[in-house]
Amino acid sequence: MSSCSGGRGPQKLFAGGVAKDNEKGLSLFEFDNKGKLKLIAEADAGPNPSYFCFFKRHDLIYALDEVMKFKGARGGAITTLKYDPESGTIERKNEIRVPHGGPCHISISADSLFLFVANYSSGSVAIVKLDENGIPERVTDSILYVTEPPIVSHPHMISQDPAGRHVYLTDLGRDRILIFDFDKDNGKLIPVENGIIKVPEGSGPRHFIFNRDGSKLYLINEKSSKIIVFHVSTDGLLVPVQTLSTLKSSFTKKNACAAIFIGKNNDFLYASNRGENSIAVFEIEDNGLLKLAGHSSSGGDWPRSFVLDPSGKFLLSANQRSNTISVFKINQKTGIPEGPIGQAAMKAPAFLEFWK
Questions:
Q1: What is the pTM of this model?
Q2: Is the Cβ–Cβ distance between 133 and 147 less than 8 Å?
């Protein structure tokens, strides 16, 4: 899994975006302690590497190729790349097709033996086994959900809780969260009893994040522009305890929420609004509930993703439609991003992650 460690010199930021075959859709930037971005490398990570995750122990990057057909066959793909932190080189190591196609989210299991993939466009999920060197070797499970109108499944995120006890899946199309046990011996998802958690119709559950101890799950809803806070019970089931809007009360136009993250000290939660083009900031109270702290601009158009740097002092927003990555300095007292203080150009950036 991605791990956090202090680094000397500039931090390394990876950014994935829209790319056709043989285009270089994965970019590597240096990010210094003054908030300046400098492009230092680009890599071919396959078509549309819009999301990725790391396996730091093996210096690997797993890039999702968000397509419906890969090399002539129906399906998406995972492109594995090897990153050398010393030389800065990025080498393509492996490709594996993922059934059904249209992948949009990938995460690595708590034991670093499997990859979990959510396929938005095809309404499916897949599990991929890693070999002893971290290279994807085979698909061990694939589930195809409802794909016929009027209520079509659109899985958007799949990940384990911090302790690795359960697997959680958002289904944006059917307004629900699915909860699974995971059979590590066979690489299979096993639905838990009463493990379908419905959210209000029209919510569009997209991404989620747990607090540090795993007692709360924060869900961002793309269609309703709301965050739902859930209490996580001892058996992994979810109980809703709070719902808040991510928008300013004066905003009345169309909006689609995207990303959600928690600050370094677990004291603020951040959420991006595509349409209002803002970052909403919430204070996390001692009981895990949220209180609106304020909003800042995203520094561009359509913030599909953003990331906080390892120091917790900066927020970087990937503005997909304006082809920019905007840099903000976070006010350490209020939690509000201030700026932008800098910007870098990139074609349709879709996801950002620091090599921590």
A1: 0.96
A2: no
